[in-house]
Write a structure and sequence with these properties.
Strand content: 5-15%
Strand order of the largest sheet: 2-3-4-1-5
Helix content: 55-70%
Radius of gyration: 32 Å
Shape: elongated
Distance between the termini: 45 Å
Structural class: alpha/beta
Length: about 850
Amino acid sequence: MPHHLTPAEAAPRLLHGRDAELSEISELVLSHPLVSLTGPGGVGKSSLADVVAGGVEEAFVDGVVMVRLAEVRPGAVLDAMSAAVELPRTGGGDRITALVRWLRPRRMLLVIDNCEHVLDEVAAILVPLLDDAAGGSERRAHVLATSRRLLGLVGEQAFHVAPLALPAAGDPPEGIAGSASAVLFVERARDRDRGFVVPEGQWSSLGELCRRLDGLPLALELAAGKASALGIPRLLARLEKDLDVVSRSSEGTSRLRSVEAVYDWSEQLLSERERTLLRRLSVFTGSFSIEAVDAVLGTSGTLGEWDDALTALVESSLVVRDHHHDRYRLLETVRQLAGERWEEGDASDEVRRRHASHYLTVAIRAGDGFKDGPEREWLEGLGPDEPNLRAALDHALHRDGTDRELAVQGLAAAANLPLYWWTRSQHREGFDRLRSALETAGDAAPTELRAAGLFGMAFLWAHDGDDWPTAAIYLREGIDLLGGAVAEPGETPILGYLLCLLGEAHAVGGDTREAVELTRRGRDLIARYRDPWGLAFAEWNVGFAAQCAGDLEGAERHYREMIHIQSAYGSRLELMIGHNSLGELAERRGDHEAAREHYVRGLDLRRNLGAIRLGYAHGSLPLSLLALARVSRALGDDAAARAYASESQAAATQMQDGPTADACARELMLLSAGPVRAELRRQGAGWVVGIGGESTVLADSKGLRHLHRLVTRPETPISATVLAGLADGAGRLGGDAGTVLDRRAVAEYRARLEALDAEIDEAAQDGHETRLRVAQDERDALIAELGRGTGLGGRLRVDKSDAERARINVTRTVREAIERIGADCPRLAEHLRASVKTGTWCAYHPTVAVSWNDDGGQEAP
């Protein structure tokens, strides 16, 4: 979820002579949706934005989020912004639309720093975000941008940041000493040498130096770094020659040239080796480690080859060292100027290639480490390198495709990162990177690597929008690359991975027979390799397929085997998934103590990983909390249940997860007002049904058995094949189906569903109940039609498949049972019509809190 400023970001920094500006900008930010700070490089725009953000943060209940675009290359703004605001998932739709929907209702300040090189990309996001006529939820987010140029958007409030106040010529020493530019200069000189003082008689020289530098903070800071060694008169004399041309330029050009001239003069004072290092360091984007300097710039193979030069650059204030994180960075203006002066021809091309290769290697190593566990170390380790990793992927996957070897390495890195992107909710960034890598590397990449890329695309797409039919298309493409499902495995277990995930897709769609066969085949293939993560992944998929087929004992065996494997090897992610799955099974069979134990363990692991939302099968933080609320209430621990439900509701609301927030509200209603009493229980050969004062006895039917199964497991999806199998006394049903739906058909279905989702959101925000109901009815009908027409992997169902027969029969028998109930218990029938959903998957989502007397929870035969 969007974060508040860190203490380091929020702590007010001393900005000399800026009190009036800070006050005025703060007022603008609070009263206008978009404020832009403009001015030349080095004038202090970023520092002002940081301090303003820290000062107004309390007015923004959803916090302040910083997006540093100085470290973002063109084309990657959407990736960086989505990651910064922690967009959970796009739902499979347009990324900008999803981002805007995520941001608009938040009372948040979005600080977008250094926009000038990506103005169009920033504007493409801000236009719909700030357009109050666009519909949807009310806009509450505000934006503070910094840029050398205006964004040019309607409603933009521009604030031009002027340089620091200058002493006038002829001012006395005390007047010069009190000017903002002189105060900054002296303070920065003392940062380098605590004994620095301005000798008597040199104040006028300092005043002239400040005027020569136009009061630009960056120019003053760079010059101050040399003051202790050279003294003010010599410093002024050295600068006057380089800055003489500036006095004949326009004001704006003069200020820009002041910074450039001081930079060039600072470079001249460096040794040739130090100057070479400074220019080559401009290849880095954002911060970097000293190990990266050795790897990217080292030529001799000697450890610490550049240490002396790097030390000199830090001492000259040209490179900044972050002591807390043990990393380095160049101020953005310095990085740009150093890069512009880097003219080494083939040498610079080689450095850029080595930079890309280094960070791609880092990504491959991190992907391997992520699977080995524990994941937290690798998550935190790769995070600071993300800007450089994005730059490396951009370089490797450049569309001209001339460096095929680097493109293949880019594909290898991207194919190794789906778990990282998944855990950080960066599904679409990963998907887009993988698609680009496959297109660029092409046939130059080994077949198994291309198949791994398709697996990653399918994995991320399915978990981003729960669009398993489209994911299955990518999976089948990967399987076909490898020779088909019955092919012999190659050097890697990727065929087993593809089969397991395709089995999960079939399980989600209700084709349990195919799901079981695919996942078992995949598990057997993976078992031939030393791949603990893959084997645990396969065991879960076999268990999930068994669970969907109604084989709960078999499912539990496989989930326990998954936990057994990772208890020895340490993947926290797979342990979390295993405990959650065992908790679900324990809750279903009424063992609430065991369920709570597993759910607590799963929640602890989820929090540790930061795995807030992982998609269809693996839930989210709100759903984990809601599960604990349910089992705590069942155990009579109402205080714990209320705490879990309240936390879940807050998290679901923050994540814009309406269904989970509604379920939390029902849970809290159960805990406070008490539920409506209802019954659906066996009595001899028939059933007693009723609610309140209404009651009747009905003869047995399949529909009543289906209803009993559903109402005793509220909020739990159950496949129609399982319901039909239980009602018939069969273990499970399965099914397959015919020809493939093309991507265009899938896209058309999804496009209409996206439009209906937007319509539902807007109607809900406006409180327009009729419009909301019409849109929801159309959406339900479209999903039902899609369910009737499609199976898994975009495959058309044949009319007589088991899965299709189960869907039709369960829907019909449930509706008939509700109509029979309605003859004597209209209130109960009305509740069931509103709360029971049927289709490929069926579920009971109670619209009001109901406590069911179900004969002790015994299963209906």
